[in-house]
Write a structure and sequence with these properties.
The chain has about 550 residues and is an alpha+beta fold.
């Protein structure tokens, strides 16, 4: 047994000596062989890239998640078409809403890629030169998965570029990552850019019939946010007139706006400043974008760039978490400080009730309860003016020939009755901001797009198709007018105005969102009830004294 053990030990020692003596040779061989394998793969990728790019020149990469139907052009990795699966093109339509498209008469697309620095004086975009290929041209986010990654490959002059699109379940945010491997013998300088191109004019066939060109022009803007200016809008009309706008930034975002939807690049915070640009391209195409500085990548090194892109609806809660002030793309105008809390309350009510129409009714009741002290003051003033009409007529009959004496007697009467005629207008003026802020809330919130109420009201964000609500509103206004002027001795002109004002308002409200008209109807009904009650109390007090 001992002799056998000795033989095994001797053999082990001999093998160890042989391995140690040949270690450098073996390691050198493995290292060289690995290099040759990588180089072979690079050559294969380059050849494959050239062959496939010729075959699929006209084919896009198709992507489907639970939020998107998306098409990516392998030439540059440009996003050329996006359909949103949670939103219909039009009410009762079977087609999904198309946000991005590239057609002969209209372009709305998103580009991104690499900037190469040929010299230290200017940057050159060469996105079109990137003929990417992918392992597949049809990608689906499976139900049991949360993330879908789509890697695109391109190699030229021993430099491997990998562009990875990452989609997340239940999210409109797309992460785009660039991995650059410099296998060449020379240092390179590279950066990234992100760009959004959109035609300044949208043909009518791409619009909802209920959305006219006037509203399209109002909402079609470009927005920019930087560390120095949290939100600034640029109108299409001004961009078409002006030259290139350049802004140097550390971070921020750029967005292409329309009424309910937006596309936005979130500019990454990099070691050096990036540049935002806004310009006009051929055929009056508006182009906004950002480009980073160029960074040195030495031979044998790898470099990563990351950027984020939002494509989809303007959802306050989600957008505010992605980038500072991105939720400002929801255009509530000057009254945003009131519109935002109103929407939060409206959204809270919807989550409890499940119907936006009834939520509007309840929020109207809440507003009227909170503003009742002001309303009461207004109605008391109107009621007193009503019941003082006989006394005013008597003063006019007695002192009508003497204006100075007449004015003095009227002021004396108002003081005696503790009445300020302006008190009837002040509450109305104070309540106007609430009305305007609610108007912006109802017209600009994506949540109310195609939101039904009851019966014939299928979309609270658009006008009543049968004009029933505006007619009901005009009737309620007429009742208010009658109550307010019940004791006035109206001449024929005043009598006409009693009817003309409701008609004018009803014509104005014909084209306003039905949700807003619903608010006004409920508001008027409450006004009628409050006026009746206050007038009754004032009448009893007046006749009792």
């Amino acid at each position: 047994m001992n002799s056998k053990n000795n033989i095994i030990i001797i053999i082990f020692c001999l093998c160890s000596v042989i391995i140690l003596n040949n270690y450098q040779k073996i390691y050198s061989y493995i290292k060289n062989d690995t290099k040759s394998i990588i180089n072979k793969n690079i050559i294969n990728i380059e050849n494959k890239s050239q062959k496939i790019s010729n075959i699929i020149a006209n084919n896009n990469i198709l992507v489907k998640t639970n939020k998107f139907l998306l098409q990516i052009n392998p030439d540059g990795g440009t996003i050329e078409k996006v359909q949103l699966l949670d939103y219909l093109d039009k009410l009762n339509s079977k087609k999904f809403f198309t946000l991005l498209r590239k057609n002969s008469d209209f372009i709305y697309q998103i580009k991104s890629g690499i900037i190469q620095k040929n010299n230290f004086k200017k940057n050159q975009f060469f996105n079109k030169n990137f003929k990417f290929f992918s392992k597949s041209y049809n990608f689906n986010l499976k139900k049991n998965k949360n993330i879908l990654k789509i890697p695109l490959f391109f190699i030229k002059k021993n430099i491997l570029y990998i562009k990875i699109f990452s989609f997340t379940k239940d999210n409109y945010l797309i992460n785009i990552n660039y991995q650059i491997y410099n296998k060449s013998k020379k240092p390179i300088y590279l950066g990234i850019f992100g760009q959004i191109d959109k035609s300044s004019y949208t043909p009518k066939k791409y619009l909802d019939k209920k959305q006219n060109n006037i509203s399209t022009k109002i909402f079609n803007n470009v927005a920019v946010s930087t560390e120095n200016n949290k939100f600034k809008k640029y109108k299409f009309s001004n961009i078409l007139k002006n030259k290139v706008i350049n802004i140097s930034v550390n971070y921020g975002w750029i967005a292409m706006l329309q009424k309910y939807f937006t596309s936005a690049w979130i500019i990454p915070k990099l070691p050096q400043k990036s540049n935002i640009y806004i310009t006009k391209l051929f055929n009056n195409i508006i182009s906004i974008g950002f480009k980073s500085a160029n960074y040195l990548i030495l031979p044998g090194e790898k470099y990563n760039f990351t950027s984020k892109l939002w494509i989809g609806p303007k959802i306050q809660e989600k957008m505010s978490k992605i980038a500072p002030f991105l939720d400002l793309t929801i255009d509530y105008g000057f009254w945003s400080f009131l519109s935002k809390p109103l929407f939060k309350l409206l959204n809270l009510l919807f989550n409890l009730i499940g119907n936006w129409g009834f939520s509007i009714i309840i929020i109207t009741l809440i507003i009227r309860v909170l503003t009742y002290p002001l309303s009461k003051q207004q109605y008391i003033a109107i009621a007193k003016m009503n019941f003082l009409q006989p006394k005013i007529k008597k003063i006019k009959k007695t002192f009508g020939h003497n204006k100075e004496k007449f004015t003095k007697e009227i002021i004396s009467l108002y003081k005696k009755e503790n009445l300020n005629p302006l008190s009837g207008f002040i509450p109305f003026i104070i309540q106007m901001p609430i009305f305007l802020s609610l108007y912006y809330t109802l017209t600009n919130s994506i949540e109310l797009r195609h939101a039904s109420f009851i019966f014939w009201i299928k979309d609270l964000s658009s006008q009543d198709p049968y004009y029933i609500l505006p007619i009901i509103m005009s009737i309620t206004m007429l009742i208010i007018q009658k109550i307010s002027q019940s004791n006035f001795n109206k001449d024929s002109i005043q009598e006409k105005f009693t009817y003309i004002i409701p008609i004018i308002f009803s014509l104005f409200f014909l084209w306003l969102p039905s949700g807003l008209v619903l608010y006004y109807i409920i508001n008027n009904i409450i006004t009628i009830l409050q006026q009746k009650w206050i007038f009754y109390k004032i009448q009893n007090e007046y006749y009792s004294t």
